[in-house]
Amino acid sequence: MYTNQPVKDEDNAHPVAEVWRPTLRQIVGALCRGDYEVSEGIEDVAPVAQDVAHQMRASVADYGEQLVDLPEETWKTSVCQWMGTRWEVLVDLWTVESGRSDLVLFVNVSECKTGFRFEVYSLYVP
Fold first, then answer.
1. What CATH number is given to the structural domain containing 118?
2. What confidence tens digit (pLDDT) does each residue in 75-110 have?
3. Is residue 43 part of a domain?
């Protein structure tokens, strides 16, 4: 059972809901393998548009470091916020060279009949 559930609060950011963390880890795992389209068919993840995949690949290449799977520590600084119809989730990314990096994964999460739907929106240095 997940203890940290999604919070619908338009005024404040909150920690990333525990129920979303396994899917977010799978998305980042795909990125670590160079699969910026997240083409391995992760359940409840929308196909990543080609322009978004290209932008993410370019951001990582420009950053010049290799992404790694998310450690548990990432949830201490990653946040989400309700935007009226969906949550915007910012996941701090980690690299081999730096540990916690300046790179952030931006994902929209919305409610659907089966639970939640994830849409990878961007990866960038804020």
1. 3.10.450
2. 999 999 999 999 999 999 999 999 999 999 999 999
3. yes
How far apart CA 106 and CA 124 sit, in angstroms, is: 8
Alpha-carbon distances, residue 39 vs 65, 83, 104, 111, 123 (angstroms)? 22, 27, 20, 22, 17
Structure tokens at 39: 């083409």
Q: Which residue has the tokens 């470091």?
A: 65
Confidence class for position 1, pLDDT limits 50, 70, 90 = very low
Any idea what DSSP says for residue 72? G
> Residue 5 domain-assigned?
no
Contact yes or no for 92/104 (Cβ under 8 A) = yes
How many structural domains does the chain have?
1
Please write the tens of the pLDDT for every residue from 43-79.
899 989 999 999 999 999 999 999 999 999 999 999 9
The residue with tokens 């338009």 is 10
Does residue 8 lie within any of the structural domains?
A: no
